[in-house]
Design brief:
Elements: H1 3-11, E1 19-23, H2 29-38, E2 41-46, H3 49-58, E3 62-64, E4 79-85, H4 94-104, E5 105-113, H5 118-125, H6 150-159, E6 162-171, E7 174-176, H7 180-183, E8 186-193
Parallel strand pairs: 1-2, 1-4, 2-3, 4-5
Antiparallel strand pairs: 5-8, 6-7, 6-8
């Protein structure tokens, strides 16, 4: 299944007409999709020059900013939805960025590679780090600072006073609700302040 299907599954969590902030928006594909299919407005945050240019060419509002510096330029609850898709694993300040997501948005949606997916477990049991579609890098050249699991995020959310509104995994473009910590390569959480 394509990454496009994963994007569409996550887009279903965003209410039509929402004001959206996409942290680590990449080339702006999701924001353009939300604009064109759900009437959403908002901004992307991206650090990479080429990705910022791609956003501009796509007509997506983008701010070039290092997420490690926080979101102090935004007021509390200034967005309906804050997306943090495939970015948590790249950040040093994961916990504070999660709190910032809940501060500036009424709803937060995060996704990240689920390290507890069963093929990853087998690979580690065999003595090697996994290389998969969700975790496509060798251990020595990965941009990921950390790896996490579906179950770990549930604990992190509780610790930070977040109420999980929906949670599921994604595997090959399909939603996984039965044993997502084991059976899904990507974890997805929709949350708000508790």
């Amino acid at each position: 299944m394509s990454e496009r299907k994963d994007m569409e599954l996550i887009a279903e969590l965003v209410p039509a007409g929402s004001r959206v902030l996409d942290l680590g928006c990449g080339r702006g594909e999701l924001l353009a999709y939300l604009r064109d299919h759900k009437g959403c407005t908002g901004y992307g945050i991206e650090i990479d020059d080429a990705n910022v240019l791609a956003c501009v060419e796509r007509g997506v509002n983008v701010i070039q900013l290092n997420l490690e510096e926080g979101l102090s330029i935004f007021a509390d609850q200034s967005f309906d939805v804050v997306l943090q898709l495939e970015t948590l694993q790249h950040l040093r300040n994961t916990e504070s960025m999660l709190r910032e997501t809940a501060r500036v948005g009424r709803i937060g949606i995060v996704s990240f590679p689920n390290f507890a997916h069963w093929p990853n477990r087998l690979r580690v049991m065999g003595g090697r780090m996994p290389v998969t579609r969700a975790l496509p890098y060798e251990w020595y050249d990965t941009p990921n600072i950390r790896v996490g699991t579906y179950a770990d995020f549930e604990v992190l959310a509780r610790k930070n006073g977040l109420q999980v509104l929906d949670a599921f995994g994604i595997q090959r473009g399909r939603v996984v609700r039965f044993r997502p910590n084991l059976l899904a390569s990507v974890a997805v959480f929709k949350f708000q302040r508790g």
